[in-house]
Amino acid sequence: MTGHTDNKILVNAPMSLVWEHTNDVAGWPELFSEYAAAEILERDESSVTFRLTTHPDEDGKVWSWVSRRTPDPETRTVAAQRVETGPFAYMNIRWEYHQEASGVVMRWIQDFAMKPESGIDERAMVDRLNRTTAEQMAHIKKVLESRARGGADYGPGDLHAQRLLYLTCGPRLAAVVTTLAELGIVDLVAEGPREVAGLAEEAGANADALYRLLRCAASVGILTELPDGRFESTPLADGMRADRPYSLLPLVRYSAQTFVTRPYGALTHSVRTGEPATTPTLGSDLWRYFEEVPEDGAFFDATMTGLGRWETERHLEVVRPERFGSIADIGGGQGHFLAEALKRAPEATGVLFERPDALSGAAVVFGEHGVAERVTPIGGDFLSDPLPEGCDAYILKAVLHNWPDAACEQLLTAVRKAIGDRPQARLFVVEQVVAGGNAWDHAKFLDLDMLVLFGGRERRLGEWRELFASCGFELVNRPGEGHWTVLECRPAEGSL
After folding, report:
1. Which of 188, 471, 482, 491 has its CA 20 to 30 Å from the CA of residue 96?
2. Choosing from 21, 194, 401, 426, which is the catalytic residue?
3. Active-site residue identified among 33, 47, 51, 69
C-alpha cells in the first residue's frame, strides 16, 4: 500500500521572494515551526543535501533525517526525497509554484510507503501529514507575507505595492494595447518571431520607439522578447488578432475612443454625483452626442452590433424561439438577433421596434437571412411610444443596463401592458448578472461604463428579481454569472 497527499496554499508575495526563501534550506528553521536546525551537507550544480532536526515532539522525542532537494527554476518545481527514510520505505515530495493574480500558489505532493515495522500504516500517516502540512503551510504563508511587506530588506518589494503600481499604470497600459492595435503589431507577429526593424518598416514606426513599446508590452505578457531581440506572440496577444472570430480588437478600439476616455477622466464626478460624466466632458448625454457627431455614433453602433453577435447561438438555445408564433425585439438594433431567431422558428413572425435611424440597415439584415417577409419594422422611442401588442415573446437584449431603475420600470411596465392577458407569453432579457463577493467579473467594469457613459447600471440577481417583480414579471430560470446571459420571465399572476 502507498500513501499520497496533495496540499496547497496561496501566498500573497512575489514569486521571486517565495521561490528564493522556500529554497533557502539553511533558513528553514525560520520558515517551519517544526524544525530546530537545518544543516547543509553537500551542494552540487542542481541539488542540495541537508539534515533536518525537529523540535521535541509531544513525547519529548527529537527527530532527524537527511533529505536531498533539486529545484528547477525554469519550471518552478522542486523534486525532493528522504535519503535517511526513518519510518518510511520511501518518501518523495514534489513542490510546485504557480503564479496567480493575487500571489503564488505553493503546492506540496507527497508520495510514500511505510515500513512494516514502523508501527503506523499509510492511512494514519496521510492523516498526520495532511494535518501537519496545513499547519506548516499556514506558518510559511504568514512569514513570507510579513517579509514581503518588509520591502527592501527582503527583495524587490511588497506584492501589494507592485500590484497597486501596476493598476496605477492602467492608462499607460491601455495606451500600449491601443497602439499595438493601431499599428497591427499582433497580426505582424502572428506567424512567428520578428525583428524590430522589420516590424517598424511594415508598421510605419520609428524602430527605437517601437522597441521600447514592445519591451513594455512584453513585461506584462502581451508579447515575448527573445534573447536575440526578436519579439513573438503570446496567447494574451492572440486575443487581439484581427483574424480571430471572437477577437477583442473591437473592444480595444472602442475603449480608446474620445467619447469613452474623456468621460472616464471625470469618473470622480460620477462617483460624487451619481450622474454620467458625458455632459461635463462631451457637452451632452451620450445619445445626443452621437447625433451631433454621427461618425462616432456609427462607430458605436457597428461595434455593439458586432459584439452583440458573439453569443447569439448560446442565447437562442435558452430562448428557444421555435416555441413562439410571434416575437418582438425591442431596441434590437439592425435586427441580427431577431433574424437568427426567426431562422430557427420558420413559422413565426417578428417585430423589430427601434429608433427610426437605427432601422436603416435592418432591411439588408433581414434580406440576407431570408426572413424579410416575416418581419414588421416599427420606428419609435420605447420610453414614450406604444409598444407592439399581443406577441408571444418579447426580447430586450442589452437594453436595460443602459438605463437607471426608473426608466427600466417604465419600459418593463410598457412591455407588461403590451403582453396583456397572455400568461403563456414570455419576456427574455439578455444582460449580465453581477457576481457577488470579490470574484473577478467583467460586469463590474461594465457597471462603471453604465455609470460614467449612460447613467445605467449592471445588476445582481436579487436586483433583477426586484425590478421584474415591481413591473409585473417573475423570473423563471436561474441565469449564470460572469458572462452575458438570458433571464426568462413570465407575467406574474394578477399583475394586470
Report:
1. 482
2. 401
3. 69
- Angle formed by the axes of helices 336-344 and 312-319, to 10°? 50
Q: What mean pLDDT do residues 271-280 have?
A: 96
- Choosing from 51, 76, 82, 483, the catalytic residue is 82
401 labelled catalytic: yes
Helix (H, G, I), strand (E, B) or coil at 235: helix
Nearest CA to 412 out of 363, 355, 365, 473 is that of 473
- C-alpha 14: how far from its chain's center? 21
Residue 434 near residue 458, CB atoms below 8 Å: yes
Q: How far is CA 97 from CA 21, 103, 162, 337, 442, in A?
A: 13, 10, 19, 45, 27
pLDDT digits (tens, 9 = 90+) for 310-358: 889 999 999 999 999 999 999 999 999 999 999 999 999 999 999 888 7
The predicted pLDDT at position 81 comes to 96
- Long-range interactions of 250-256: CB distance < 8 A, separation 24+: 250/303, 250/306, 250/307, 251/303, 251/307, 252/177, 252/178, 252/181, 253/178, 253/181, 253/303, 254/299, 254/300, 254/303, 255/174, 255/178, 256/174, 256/178, 256/181
Q: Is 67 noted as a catalytic residue in this protein?
A: yes
Q: Please give the C-alpha separations between residue 250 and each of 31, 33, 309, 331, in angstroms, as whole numbers.
A: 49, 53, 13, 22
Q: Is the pLDDT of residue 137 over 70?
A: yes
Torsion of CA 265, 271, 276, 278, to 10 degrees: -20
The answer to whether the CB of 425 falls within 8 A of the CB of 391 is: yes
**What is the pTM assigned to this prediction?**
0.69
> Which one from 21, 67, 315, 416 is the annotated catalytic residue?
67
